[in-house]
């Protein structure tokens, strides 16, 4: 064999390929004009929110004015981070794999000693790096804004950013999975938006299930009973209930109301923080495994 | 000579979506590439060349048949992958990276690192003649320079096999010659090259063996000297076009006319004396008679034409 000797193996050797791909994905991703546009826009909105007080009713005075002003800033910033952050997440997750198929870079990578699992791991890790850096930049600006306004360390905001990342992680994993079936970023972008919207509305799905009179599959005594009591309302209710059980509940990660109403250095009132972290990681892992299953035998 | 790449009855059929007809991209391919040779893999567009290459690289999966590379049936084994360098057609390399950074990226995918990697980068930059531009961003590279960087990434692990898809397409004549010289040098170093190309002149100049693919079937395969035989005789005469017109329908082909020189062709030496007599009768003066070697282009057109005729006949 004429090929040169590769570096000595070690525990981390299988991760060298994914890390190389992740770093490349990150470097390429942060140069995308759409992404940079979203980021600049979000930073402008966050920064601009501190001037919103100028537009408040001048007859309102004292602490009340200060309080409304602060709430307005918080509301704008949290919403801005959430919306621009998710748009960046979906855009990056949806395009990471299909773009390399379009420009044929994937051929040069997968013809090397790189497994498809390693390739996907690298791409996904690169996407997460981009999401984290963007979230970090938006969060840092918001953090500084609040700190200088209130003079207290806004630790609750740090918790909020931490949980927002898990929301992004889940949406990112499923968008990434859809992108592994696609040849362009359009379908996965739509899929990602669908995951985010339904994931944010799962409480309503539960409500639809309850209102339809659906009592779950256990409520039926057999196929004949099911046919006898069948109705469109129950079908919709059953579907909504099933979706509620399958889809991630992204509202669990939302600390917006607490940030608006509570002192900035209060601890979060979310119960079961470790469980929520595990919940997010399990959903993200499921999304990634799904991506691998789609891509494992994909003809590229 | 050892066999480096071998396929046995390799077939690939793409299933038609939504009830449309299946597409047979490759049928019972028996490809043999020997060590230390340049194998030209030829065929018209859609003949199955890229499908074959993708199958060899496990980017797609065969419907049936076997592939053996370096004696290994598991073509995704590290031993095999470590020894294959691949240059796809029209591949993109990121503009924001410098030439050497591109090679660093691909080198790391092979598990190279530290001084070993830097040594390899130095060596391949030298091989492809890009040492002077290694610290420049790719956005400042010409098309030929990008192609050379593409070739360098394929060479970064010093592989035994190089698979190149249209390596000279779209390049100017000088860049083409430079790439051709690099490929010939690599063959002389003992590497095995499988080149898919439309540039028949390039292939004729550098390949040892060729295979012509049409309709997913390997129509012919062999050493280029054996396939391009001295089949025909070229006769150069002087005279008028009216004289040449008298030769029509006699089995003599008028190839070209420049001034009063007329280039004729007869199928083999048994027809020469008859042709000379007819020329004399037509008032044409003999200038020269020479055996004429079939060009690769002619062989290609003949083989592909026959395959197309057979396919049309089968379809009726």
Distance between the termini of chain B: 43 Å
The CATH H-level homologous superfamily of the largest domain in chain B: P-loop containing nucleotide triphosphate hydrolases
Return the average pLDDT of chain B rounded to an integer. 90
Query: How many distinct helices of chain B?
Result: 11
Which percent range fits the helix content of chain B? 25-40%
- In the CATH hierarchy, the third-tier topology of the largest domain in chain B is known as Rossmann fold
- Per DSSP, what share of the residues of chain A sits in E-state strands of 2 or more residues? under 5%
pLDDT averaged over residues of chain A: 84
How many strands, which pairing sense, and closed or not: the largest β-sheet of chain A? none
Verbal overview:
The complex is a heterodimer of chains A (300) and B (316). With 300 residues, chain A is mainly α. Chain A has a domain of 202 residues. Chain B has eleven helices and 14 strands. Chain B is α/β, with parallel strands linked by helices and 316 residues long. In chain B, a hairpin with a 2-residue loop joins strand 9 and strand 10. Chains A and B meet through helix 1 and helix 4 of A and helix 2, strand 6, helix 3 and helix 4 of B.
Concise structural overview:
The complex is a heterodimer of chains A (300) and B (316). Chain A contains twelve helices and no strands. Chain A is mainly α.
List the helices and strands and how they pair.
The complex is a heterodimer of chains A (300) and B (316).
Chain A: H1 13-29, H2 33-49, H3 62-102, H4 105-110, H5 116-150, H6 155-179, H7 186-200, H8 202-211, H9 223-228, H10 232-246, H11 256-261, H12 273-296
Helix pairs in contact in A: 1-5, 2-3, 2-5, 3-5, 3-6, 3-7, 5-6, 5-12, 6-7, 6-12, 8-10
Chain B: E1 3-14, E2 23-29, E3 32-34, E4 38-42, H1 49-56, E5 64-69, H2 78-81, E6 84-87, H3 99-109, H4 114-127, H5 143-155, E7 161-165, H6 173-188, E8 192-196, H7 200-206, E9 209-214, E10 217-223, H8 224-227, E11 232-238, H9 241-245, E12 253-258, E13 261-266, H10 272-281, E14 285-292, H11 296-315
């Amino acid at each position: 064999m004429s090929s040169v000797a590769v570096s000595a193996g070690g525990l981390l050797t299988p991760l060298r390929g994914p890390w190389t791909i992740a770093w490349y994905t990150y470097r390429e991703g942060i140069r995308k004009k759409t992404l940079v546009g979203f980021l600049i826009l979000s930073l402008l909105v966050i920064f601009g929110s501190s001037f919103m007080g100028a537009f408040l009713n001048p007859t309102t005075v004292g602490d009340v004015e200060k309080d409304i002003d602060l709430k307005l800033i918080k509301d704008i910033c949290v919403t801005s981070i959430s919306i621009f952050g998710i748009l960046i997440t979906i855009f990056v997750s949806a395009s990471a794999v299909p773009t390399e198929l379009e420009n044929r870079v994937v051929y040069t990578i997968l013809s090397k000693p790189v497994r498809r699992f390693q390739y996907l791991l690298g791409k996904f890790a690169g996407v997460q790096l981009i999401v984290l850096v963007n979230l970090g930049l938006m969060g840092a600006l918001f953090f500084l804004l609040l700190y200088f306004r209130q003079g207290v360390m806004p630790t609750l905001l740090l918790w909020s950013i931490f949980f927002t990342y898990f929301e992004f992680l889940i949406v990112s994993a499923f968008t990434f999975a859809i992108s592994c079936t696609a040849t362009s970023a359009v379908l996965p972008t739509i899929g990602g938006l669908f995951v985010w919207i339904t994931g944010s509305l799962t409480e309503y799905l539960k409500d639809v299930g309850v209102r339809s009179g659906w009592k779950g599959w256990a409520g039926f005594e057999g196929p004949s009973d099911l046919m006898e009591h069948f109705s469109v309302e129950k079908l919709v209710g059953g579907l909504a209930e099933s979706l509620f059980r399958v889809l991630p509940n992204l509202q669990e990660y939302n600390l917006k109301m607490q940030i608006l109403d509570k002192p900035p250095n209060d601890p979060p009132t979310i119960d079961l923080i470790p469980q929520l972290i595990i919940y997010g990681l399990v959903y993200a892992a499921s999304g990634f495994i799904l991506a691998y299953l789609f891509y494992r035998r994909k003809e590229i | 000579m050892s066999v480096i790449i071998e396929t046995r009855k390799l077939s690939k059929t793409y299933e038609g979506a939504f009830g449309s007809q299946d597409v047979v991209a490759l049928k019972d391919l028996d490809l043999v590439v020997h060590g230390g040779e340049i194998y030209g893999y030829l065929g018209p567009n859609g003949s199955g060349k890229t499908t074959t290459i993708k199958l060899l690289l496990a980017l797609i999966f065969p419907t049936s048949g076997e592939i053996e590379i370096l004696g290994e049936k598991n073509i995704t084994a590290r031993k095999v992958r470590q020894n294959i360098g691949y240059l796809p057609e029209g591949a993109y390399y990121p503009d924001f990276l410098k030439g050497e950074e591109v090679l660093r990226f691909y080198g790391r995918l092979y598990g190279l690192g530290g001084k070993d990697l830097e040594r390899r980068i130095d060596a391949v930059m030298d091989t492809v003649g890009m040492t002077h531009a290694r610290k420049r961003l790719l956005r400042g590279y010409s098309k030929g320079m990008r192609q050379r960087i593409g070739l360098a990434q394929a060479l970064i692990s010093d592989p035994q096999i190089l698979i190149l898809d249209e390596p000279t397409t779209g390049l100017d004549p000088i860049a083409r010659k430079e790439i051709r010289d690099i490929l010939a040098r690599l063959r002389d170093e003992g590497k095995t090259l499988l080149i898919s190309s439309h540039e028949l002149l390039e292939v004729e100049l550098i390949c040892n063996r060729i295979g012509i693919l049409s309709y997913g079937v390997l129509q012919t395969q062999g050493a280029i000297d054996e396939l391009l035989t001295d089949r025909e005789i070229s006769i150069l005469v002087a005279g008028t076009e009216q004289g040449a017109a008298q030769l029509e329908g006699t089995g003599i082909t008028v190839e070209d006319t420049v001034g009063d020189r007329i280039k004729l062709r007869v199928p083999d030496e048994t027809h020469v004396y008859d042709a000379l007599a007819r020329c004399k009768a037509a008032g044409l003066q003999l200038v020269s008679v020479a055996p004429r070697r079939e060009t690769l282009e002619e062989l290609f057109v003949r083989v592909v034409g026959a395959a197309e005729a057979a396919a049309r006949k089968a379809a009726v």
